Amino acid sequence: MVRIFNHYLRRRTIMQIGFDVGLIVAVLLLVAVGQGVATLQALPVAASHGLSLAGFIFLINSATGFYQPAAKRSLTETCARALVALLLALPIAYALTALLPNSLDQGGAVTAAAMLAVSAVVLHRVYASHVANPSQGRSKILVLGAGATAQGVAASLRAADPHAQIVGFYAGSNETEIAVPQEQLVSAEQGISDTALRLGVDEIVVALTDRRGGNMPMRELLDCKVYGIRVLDVATHFEKNLQQISLAHVNPGWLIFGDGFNQGAFRSAIKRVFDVVFSGLLLLLTAPLMVLAALAVKLESRGPVFYRQERVGLNGAPFFVTKFRSMRADAERDGKPRWATKNDDRVTRVGKFIRRTRIDELPQLFNVLGGSMSLVGPRPERQYFVEELIEKIPYFAVRHSVKPGVTGWAQVRYEYGSTVEDAAAKLQYDLYYVKNHSLFLDLHVLIETVAVVLTGRGAR
């Protein structure tokens, strides 16, 4: 993992993006030079057009999920995503090279090369997802511990990336209850540092069930760090590898003395400018869609087009959120708040569509312009549920230290949920966002939101 602006990205993802950018620029440059254009003359134009095209390809590949692990994705689904990517990328490649002025294109060769390059990029993403060695470029991880905690760490790693390279488990000196299979245990004849060097380990995750009584080999772990091996505790492991703050392993001291939770005035001002500019643009772009949605809601069932409800916002202050109505007007006729559930029978036919495509959330852009919400942040909850969740889930109130969002890290990382357990699972992603939020992470969330809408992932 590589940390960029407080957010962790997989090295493999960065390598994939770099390959895509380099391929497009190199093809344009080689074609231009092949037509007799001097290299120094061709380089600026090829770089400007190539980087512009690569930027669009990055957005398309991100939106179609090509930079995410594909172990659970079938080849048919990957090919369908590739077709969508090509339908978007080829017209853009044509427009950037054929319609924009440049001094290199002779007989449309550069235009053809650009379209060929983006096709090669998309096809390579299919190859990388299903043919290439999936373990290539991944860190080798040694888990220090062999109890239930270590087993949970391994399960979380494999759930996030089934090809994670866990080289084995090194049992602590005082561990008596071994939970992992015997064949996965690493011999403890050598110390942890010598074992890590012998196995070529890149990272050690300390997951000892009991750290008392000298069970923690501090000196040897320090040696590992001096040798360049990363050493992580369980809470940091979850933050780094799964982009979440694990409620089961975090403690107040880790949160207080660690980095993050930067809520400075400059950051707030930048986020506000970002929210106003992008929400205004989105309102202009989606205005026709919102008009159609309003007509569909009105024609299908009696009741108001918009649904307004009080939610809890920044620092616990109440505000009214606005959405397109997706349920029957009498959805809570008994006056008792209820969680919305998957396949909820209160949802209308139009409501199912606008909820699945997130069109029902678009009126919240007016909340963003008004300042009660942000484009990205934890989703706002009703006061009735907030009071219940604060009592049952530790650190739940921390999510109110930033403005609620139209979309959020939890929304793009966790399937739709409607229970206290789901709320706890989503809080782990919300805490990660609150701790590490930045403009870079906001852009990442917005791009992944497009992928969620296109694929229907987490449909409600």
Automatic annotation (TrEMBL):
Can you tell which superkingdom this protein's organism belongs to? Bacteria
**What's the protein's topology in the membrane?**
Multi-pass membrane protein
Instruction: Say yes or no: keyword Protease present.
Output: no
**Entry's Gene Ontology cellular component terms:** membrane
Q: What is its main location?
A: membrane
According to the entry, every stretch annotated as the Bacterial sugar transferase domain falls at: 271-454
Q: Where are the transmembrane segments?
A: 21-43, 49-67, 79-100, 106-128, 276-297
Task: Give the Pfam families listed for this entry.
Answer: Bac_transf (PF02397)
Query: InterPro entries from the xrefs?
Result: Bact_transf, EPS_sugar_tfrase, Sugar_tfrase_EpsB_2
Keyword set, alphabetical order: Membrane, Transferase, Transmembrane, Transmembrane helix
Please state where this protein is localized.
Membrane
Q: Which GO terms describe its molecular function?
A: phosphotransferase activity, for other substituted phosphate groups
Which NCBIfam families does the UniProt entry name for this protein? EPS_sugtrans, EpsB_2
Q: Which family does it belong to?
A: Belongs to the bacterial sugar transferase family.
Q: What is this protein called?
A: TIGR03013 family PEP-CTERM/XrtA system glycosyltransferase
What organism is this sequence from? Inhella proteolytica
